[in-house]
Amino acid sequence: MKKELLFTLICAMMMSCAQQKQKLTYPLTARVDTVDVYFGERVADPYRWLENDTSAATAAWVEAENQVTNEYLAKIPFRKALLERLTKLADYEKIGTPFKKHGKYYFYKNDGLQNQSVLYVQDALDGEPRLFLDPNKLSDDGTVALSGISFSNNGKYLAYTISRSGSDWREIYVMDVATGKLLDDHILWAKFTDASWQGDGFYYSAYDAPTKGKEFSNVNENHKIYYHKLGTPQSDDKLTYQNPLYPQRFYSTSVSEDETVMFLYESGAGRGNALYMKDLRKPNAPFVAMATDMEYNYTPLEVMNGKIYLYTNFDAPNNCLMVTDIAKPALKEWQMLVPETENVLSNAGVIGGKLFLTYDKDVANYAYVYSLEGKEIQEIELPSIGSVGFSGDKDDKECFFSFNSFTIPGTTYSYDMETNTYKVFRAPKVDFNPDDFVTEQIFYASKDGTKVPMFLIYKKGMKKDGNNPTYIYGYGGFGITYGPSFSTSRIPFLESGGIYVLANIRGGSEYGDAWHVAGTKMQKQNVFDDFIAAAEYLIANGYTNKDKLGIVGGSNGGLLVGACMTQRPDLYRVAIPQVGVMDMLRYHKFTIGWNWASDYGTSEDSKEMFEYLRGYSPLHNLKPGTRYPATLVTTADHDDRVVPAHSFKFAAMLQACNDGTYPTLIRIESKAGHGSGKPMSKVLEEQADVYGFVMYNLGMTLSR
User: Which of 120, 406, 655, 665 has CA 20 to 30 A from 573's CA?
Assistant: First the structure.
């Protein structure tokens, strides 16, 4: 045992020495004299030219950066073995929760390593499944993803949306359900929409065709709602709603299954949405306002028996359910159905004539069944601390739910409402023993004394010797809650002695809207303070040390990592900002960046807001000659959510400022976007690169 320990220590020392010797030569990145003036203050932007994502110069820079990165990653001794282990772990049958439509049952399944999951249909739950729609046949390399489906209300047709190369742009196709034949109908330049059926056609939201070459970077403005009648070209589609007074807002619509009510949603100017409705039972009825304050969320759950059931946080930061008559749609007429509680109502739905409610208590899900009159019937005792999702329709007799945790892969259960019991319907088989690992939840104090929760997952028998490699993940924004979830990508890191940490910092909705607001605009620093405090707690309490600590986050979480590594470069050994928002002064000038102003504010709002944003903007807080953590920035060429220019400029500035002790790399994926719809082959390669970089720079070796 002592010999094995000595050998491991020698290997770690040799790896550390090898890393120190790998002095990298980065591509020379041209600097320009671009200067912006904000409230009389001049701010240089020397890498502005990298915002032009279609120029030959940017393409050459991307190629040169990728070459340096790929050469570095290829030299990680266990990178190949890590990819093999990740691939083996991912190679298990993944079957989604079944759902019923027009008398038939549908479910998604991935045999293991298929690039995209396949949609199957069966006539009965014990019937033979038949392939219904296979998105793997839509491209040769798996980069076309199925992003949504919508059955017509008569059950004859299916409208499905696809995404190409991870872009937010959507195309809509229509197929005949009985024959599987594809119709000629084809919609282009749709975005943030599905198909909402009425009669012999459907509504969808779209933008005008973008300027050629700027499809993935130009600002998206003037969202419009159209009606498409089956069998007609898109050019004949009827424009049913637009609001030119507010070009930077989203507009979408939905129609109740019985086609009695149409809802119109407006968002993009606050943390929530406005809601309008039209009574389709009345010819030429106008849209009438239900709720217009976009600081709150208003979501219709169901329309039944002349009533509208709604999920909202209006005057209820922890969310509640309300109900109103179709004939009395205004907010002042709404009646409380299920009041808010001390726990967060995170999800709700109607199944079999009952309300299924999911509450969050300290970031774990708890499930309850209520009557349509708002009375609690029973609690569903879930298998353990974890996350649940229910499947079923308002008239269904069957109910299913999926459940997973950090150590339990997604399992489907069938639930009996009458007996309040459930049994396993489908359970995956993963090359992983959950009994070998421990999940621990800790509450720690942030800088201002706020109590913040975090989950730790590690191997049984782990010792608090202050030397455990640790990977902290965080997000902290837009009211998004990250709860317990299973991922095979973490397993090799855990097997090799690492601690995986999920910090539930402010900015999300772990404790309702107040938790979200506490991490927005002029309070955004709370988010970074919470994340920094998590690292400090783990070090102070013997879990790890600063040379064994890595931080990771994507999108808004990429901003989180960028801000924390620039504010406390001494605290971390590794940083992975993924598809991050790194230029806080210009983020709102690309695609739908303007929509994030409710969380961030913009540099144009006021001098105070400009100074606050500049004070934490990752790009603007890099300092020459600083020893920054080993950093792998990740982005993709089709990311039109957070455009790659953020990562390009940050990586270029970081390479110029870093003192050269640790590597500063950028990984730029091709034919991929913000993350959604990425084929399994690309997912596994990225996982191997990210975890390989983290483990290598934390001095780890790969083990089982």
Answer: 406
